[in-house]
Amino acid sequence: MTDLPGIVVTGVSGRMGQMLVKTIRESGRARLCGALERPGHDWVGQDLGRAMGGAESGVIVSDDALEVLATCDAVIDFTAPAATVEFAALAAQARIVHVIGTTGMTEEDIAKVDAAAHHATIVRAGNMSLGVNLLVQLTRKVAAALDEDFDIEVIEAHHNQKVDAPSGTALMLGQAAAEGRGVSLEDVSDRGRDGITGARKRGDIGFTAIRGGDIVGEHDVLFAAAGERIVLRHMATDRAIFARGAVKAALWGVGRGPGHFDMMDVLGLK
Ligand SMILES: NC(=O)C1=CN([C@@H]2O[C@H](COP(=O)(O)OP(=O)(O)OC[C@H]3O[C@@H](n4cnc5c(N)ncnc54)[C@H](O)[C@@H]3O)[C@@H](O)[C@H]2O)C=CC1
Ligand SMILES: O=C(O)C1=N[C@H](C(=O)O)C[C@H](O)C1
């Protein structure tokens, strides 16, 4: 049992953090070697099992990332951009795998993660599910096959606690559509319609974000032309799909050496 790769979960009290703990425990392929939360969080110092409302687990929630990362093979991180940038630097120091699910990162944040990837094995993706990563491939193919007579719109829906928009997944899908068309997403992205916007610009890729209730995550890529429409859709109904992908990525990364990878690498979809 102790020979299994050790994974630490950071942001352990969060929606994804708790799902990751459950997924690691059920996997039979890894052991939970630590649990981290932000300094000042009321779970810090408590037994993780008890904090999650169950039996004692023997794992104490810590806020000392440097100490915990030194004893583990990988850290899985679904937290917030500023925290993720710090974890990347610590993972580089510890020479371990850093799986990043955090979305809403800026170009500057990503440049810092790139720098950390000289020493850490980083797997970062706005969506860790198999289904969405396949949808990304399909989106690129469909966009490449159609011309600008087809308007492309990415529509996403998430729960009312989500803090970033468009979602990381929507941006992955928009990027794939732009690549399929051979254009830069930056040049054609339309992200904030309100008021008298004028007619839609030919060639633009539009984004719409819906927030409500407990929606886990839904993404449509709409290709709309005169007389016909194609819709590519993914609907997540259980966060376990993201957690399973993240654990798979952590195990894939152990022993691989430094670099900045994504789920396409892990799933062999490149
Ligand atoms: N890539 C993917 O497949 C997925 C990505 N996400 C992304 O994961 C992130 C988290 O999502 P949720 O779990 O829903 O959010 P959440 O708000 O439920 O959890 C975030 C947790 O991170 C903790 N945290 C913040 N700063 C920290 C620090 N310095 N050290 C340790 N812990 C810290 C918070 O206290 C909180 O418990 C978001 O960016 C979301 O978009 C969510 C689902 C799937
Ligand atoms: O915040 C979430 O919940 C999710 N975030 C990711 C994103 O921004 O795309 C992935 C998933 O859709 C759930």
UniProtKB/TrEMBL annotation:
EC top class named in words: oxidoreductase
Location within or outside the cell: Cytoplasm
Protein family according to the UniProt entry: Belongs to the DapB family.
The Dihydrodipicolinate reductase C-terminal domain, residue ranges: 131-267
GN (gene name): dapB
Chain positions recorded as NADP(+) binding sites: R38
Molecular functions (GO terms): 4-hydroxy-tetrahydrodipicolinate reductase; NAD binding; NADP binding; oxidoreductase activity, acting on CH or CH2 groups, NAD or NADP as acceptor
Protein name: 4-hydroxy-tetrahydrodipicolinate reductase
Pathway note: Amino-acid biosynthesis; L-lysine biosynthesis via DAP pathway; (S)-tetrahydrodipicolinate from L-aspartate: step 4/4
Organism: Roseovarius nubinhibens (strain ATCC BAA-591 / DSM 15170 / ISM)
Domain (Dihydrodipicolinate reductase N-terminal) ranges: 7-128
Binding site for NAD(+): G11, V12, S13, G14, R15, M16, E37, G101, T102, T103, A125, G126, N127, M128
SUPFAM superfamilies from the UniProt entry: Glyceraldehyde-3-phosphate dehydrogenase-like, C-terminal domain (SSF55347), NAD(P)-binding Rossmann-fold domains (SSF51735)
Positions with a binding annotation for (S)-2,3,4,5-tetrahydrodipicolinate: H159, G168, T169
